[in-house]
């Protein structure tokens, strides 16, 4: 049972929710998927169990992802999902926890309010918001309080957040809606166009994880996949190669590279010199696509490093920020 004043950090991602509890570290990592009975509005499953239902439910049950492009698209379902995860982590608490949630760097006030309201309704005593790139930088072990420039590229499921951080705040930042989900969509479209086969988003994600790349591989990998042949309507198995997936993924990958380029163009010269010396830090699950670091390094001419425990960076940073709320109070929104 939680004691009074317990703090919880939540990386409320489009693809995954990661929860950090002060003093315990990361205690939960689940897909951001909820299965709801359409007739009654009852939540049937949350997280991994609900993800297994994606694309496999009867008409009255819908398995959905209530966050799209890094923001809440279904408020009611998000609130139920948060409540489920908070209860799972905290048990029945006597005193409501303080919660810090990370958000993309370019969200509107309305979107911020939706996150705060959803967390409050789910049982938070006080809600703090922190920008994802700042949380990612803290989680990657970067000392953001110093007066020198650090560039962080956080590629999640719904958004890619790019920021140049100095003295604890973002100097230049941008958030684009090109990330893990867009890579999956690109694979679905490519397989449909080239092989005339329809595949689901789970299959597309498997392809991305296993043989996906955005930089030519020395050895071409291959994978057997099953889908529905659009000409016959029957199931069909085909073999796809990493060289094909490179064709599918290069367009969204170049959008991320262009966004990094535009942030570098707006960066003050002194900070740009720091970044040139220190390199660019990549965090988030999306940066694990094979060759993305090489592509970015080739196009910018700056050394690119993938952070350790890249998927958990934002959650770890949120947790560390919770422990230093007094330091970060000026940089976070609170209620």
As for the number of domains, it is 3
What series of H and E elements makes up the topology? EEEEEHEEEHEHEHEEEHEHEEHHEHEHHE
Helix content: 25-40%
User: How many β-strands, per DSSP?
Assistant: 19
Quote the distance from N terminus to C terminus: 25 Å
Q: Find the CATH topology of the largest domain.
A: Nucleotidyltransferase, domain 5
Average predicted local confidence, pLDDT: 87
- CATH homologous superfamily of the largest domain - what is it? ATPase, nucleotide binding domain
Strand order of the largest sheet: 3-2-1-9-10-19
Strand content of the residues, in percent? 25-35%
Category by helix and strand content? alpha+beta
CATH-level-2 architecture of the largest domain: 2-Layer Sandwich
Tertiary shape: flat
Largest pleated sheet: 6 strands, mixed
Count of DSSP-assigned helices: 11
CATH class descriptor name of the largest domain: Alpha Beta
Which parts are unreliable, with pLDDT below 50 for 5 consecutive residues or more? Answer: 328-333
Word description of this protein:
It contains 11 helices and 19 strands. The two termini are 25 Å apart. The chain has 3 domains: 7-134 and 314-334, Nucleotidyltransferase, domain 5 (2-Layer Sandwich), CATH 3.30.420; 140-178 and 256-310, Nucleotidyltransferase, domain 5; 180-248, Actin, Chain A, domain 4. It is flat, with a radius of gyration of 20 Å. Helix 2 (75-90) crosses helix 3 (109-121). With 335 residues, it is α+β, with helices and mostly antiparallel strands. The strands form 5 sheets. Strands 3-2-1-9-10-19 form a 6-stranded mixed beta sheet, with helices on both faces.
């Amino acid at each position: 049972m939680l004691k009074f004043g317990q703090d919880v950090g939540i990386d409320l991602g489009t693809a995954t929710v990661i929860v950090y509890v002060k003093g315990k570290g990361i205690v939960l990592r689940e897909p951001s998927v909820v299965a709801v009975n359409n007739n009654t509005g009852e939540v049937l499953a949350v997280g991994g169990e609900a993800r297994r239902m994606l694309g496999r439910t009867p008409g009255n049950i819908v398995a959905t992802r209530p966050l799209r492009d890094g923001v809440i698209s279904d408020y009611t379902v998000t609130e139920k999902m948060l409540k489920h995860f908070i209860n799972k982590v905290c048990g029945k608490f006597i005193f409501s926890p303080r919660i810090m949630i990370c958000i993309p760097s370019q969200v509107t006030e309305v979107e911020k309010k939706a996150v705060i309201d959803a967390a409050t309704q789910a049982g938070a005593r006080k809600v703090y918001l922190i920008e994802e790139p700042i949380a990612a930088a803290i989680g990657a072990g970067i000392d953001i309080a110093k007066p020198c420039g650090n560039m962080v590229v956080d590629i999640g499921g719904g958004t890619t957040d790019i920021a140049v951080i100095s003295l604890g705040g973002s100097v230049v930042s941008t958030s684009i809606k090109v990330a893990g989900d867009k890579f999956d969509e690109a694979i679905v479209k490519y397989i449909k166009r080239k092989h005339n086969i329809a595949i689901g988003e789970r299959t597309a994600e498997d392809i991305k994880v296993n043989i996906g790349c955005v930089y030519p591989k020395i050895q071409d990998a291959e994978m057997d996949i099953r889908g529905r042949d659009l000409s016959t309507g029957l199931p069909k198995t085909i073999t796809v190669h990493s060289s094909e997936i490179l064709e599918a993924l290069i367009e969204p990958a170049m959008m991320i590279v262009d966004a990094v380029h535009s942030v570098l163009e707006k960066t003050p010269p002194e900070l740009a010199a720091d970044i040139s010396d220190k390199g660019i830090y990549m965090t988030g699950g999306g940066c694990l696509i094979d060759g993305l670091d090489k592509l970015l390094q080739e196009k910018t001419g700056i050394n690119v490093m993938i952070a350790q425990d890249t998927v958990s960076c934002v959650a770890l940073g949120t947790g560390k920020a919770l422990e230093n709320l007094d330091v970060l109070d000026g940089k976070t929104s609170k209620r």
